[in-house]
């Protein structure tokens, strides 16, 4: 039985929306038990359901939450969900609440795996190829990272790509402002040299941001600050393109008629670019499965966030990371 903790509070759409995902996921997976942390009176839909437990928590971690504030919120749903993972009551934790609070809590309570210098917030991104994802890390757990930390990210990203995305020999790249060796910051240039010598990694050189989502890359490594900028710029560009396309087809009667002929193609494009199926972000490198769903998750998106945690537990990914880093 796979046991997971779900923090049901703090998301934009609230616990009632997330409860729909919990009910459907348990229905679809007979080997799952979900413990849901939140205000009991807002989780009435889950009361008495098979393989769903409710833990009443009176506090909610706000979206803007610092480390000291989080430590004071001992009765919050997020803190108690993470602690359940720490105490091995569950094997993984999922939240759509505060990103900062979740990263802080998972790092403080679960702690890094031995020899992991820095945990990385990791996200699978959709690409130009339908069904193909690229793993990018770090996307914001840290602002600055050393060259050796980037090598650690490459190892963890490769393990994730192998175990979760079923890529036998993941192609690893460093995010850079040029493909040539010698481009980039000192950290990137240092990581490039180290990765060339790292036999456990299929390192393929630098990747420019414009090529990152072409479907030919499996893992892209970056310090957290540019990684977070890449994440938000990509989201913004996707929304801009979507709105421009909608606007163009509403321009005239002829453009509306044109949409009727092109709608199947746009339907496929929407399915290819559907970020909700990626399940959010994963904090790789800590002693437990920790998945951060999108703050605006609806039931559909939170379902896939739970699914990522489920697949990570089933693949025993935490122990595989431990094995890799025990070699150092």
Give a verbal description of the structure:
This protein has helices at 15-28, 67-72, 77-86, 99-110, 147-163, 186-197, 224-249, 253-272, 299-314, 317-326; strands at residues 2-7, 32-38, 52-56, 92-95, 120-126, 133-137, 171-176, 202-208, 219-221, 281-284, 289-292. With 328 residues, the protein is of the alpha/beta class. Helix 1 (15-28) packs across helix 9, helix 3 (77-86) packs parallel to helix 4 (99-110) and helix 5 (147-163) packs across helix 10. The two termini are 33 Å apart. An eleven-stranded mixed β-sheet has the order 3-2-1-4-11-10-5-6-9-7-8, sandwiched between helices. Helix content is 44%, strand content 18%. The radius of gyration is 20 Å and the shape is globular.
What is the topological layout?
Elements: E1 2-7, H1 15-28, E2 32-38, E3 52-56, H2 67-72, H3 77-86, E4 92-95, H4 99-110, E5 120-126, E6 133-137, H5 147-163, E7 171-176, H6 186-197, E8 202-208, E9 219-221, H7 224-249, H8 253-272, E10 281-284, E11 289-292, H9 299-314, H10 317-326
Parallel strand pairs: 1-2, 1-4, 2-3, 4-11, 6-9, 7-8, 7-9
Antiparallel strand pairs: 5-6, 5-10, 10-11
């Amino acid at each position: 039985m796979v046991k997971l903790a779900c923090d049901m509070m703090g998301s934009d759409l609230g616990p009632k929306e997330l409860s729909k995902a919990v009910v459907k996921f348990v229905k679809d997976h007979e080997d799952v038990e979900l413990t849901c942390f939140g205000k009991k009176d807002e989780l009435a839909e889950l009361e008495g359901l098979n393989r769903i437990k409710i833990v009443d928590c009176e506090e909610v971690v706000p979206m803007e939450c610092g480390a000291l504030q989080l430590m004071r919120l001992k009765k919050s749903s997020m803190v108690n969900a993470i602690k359940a993972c720490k105490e091995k009551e569950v094997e993984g934790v999922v939240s759509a609440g505060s990103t900062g609070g979740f990263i802080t809590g998972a790092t403080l309570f679960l702690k890094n795996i031995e020899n992991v210098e820095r945990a990385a917030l990791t996200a699978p991104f959709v690409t130009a190829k339908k069904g193909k994802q690229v793993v990018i890390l770090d996307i914001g757990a840290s602002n600055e990272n050393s060259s050796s930390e980037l090598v650690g990210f490459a190892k963890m990203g490769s393990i994730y790509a192998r175990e979760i995305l079923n890529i036998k020999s993941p192609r690893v790249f460093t995010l850079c402002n040029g493909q040539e060796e010698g481009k980039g910051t000192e950290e990137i240039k240092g990581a490039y040299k180290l990765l060339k010598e790292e036999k456990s990694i299929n390192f393929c050189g630098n990747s420019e941001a414009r090529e990152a989502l072409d479907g030919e890359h499996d893992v892209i490594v970056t310090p957290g600050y540019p990684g977070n900028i890449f994440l938000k710029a990509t989201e913004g560009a996707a929304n801009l393109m979507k709105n421009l396309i909608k606007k163009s087809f509403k321009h005239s009667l002829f453009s509306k008629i044109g949409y009727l002929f092109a709608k199947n193609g746009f339907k496929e494009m929407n399915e290819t670019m559907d970020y909700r199926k990626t399940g959010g972000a994963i904090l790789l490198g800590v002693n437990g499965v920790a998945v951060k769903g999108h703050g605006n998750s609806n039931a559909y998106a939170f379902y896939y966030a739970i699914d990522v945690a489920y697949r990570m537990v089933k693949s025993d990914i935490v122990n595989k990371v431990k094995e890799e880093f025990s070699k150092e």
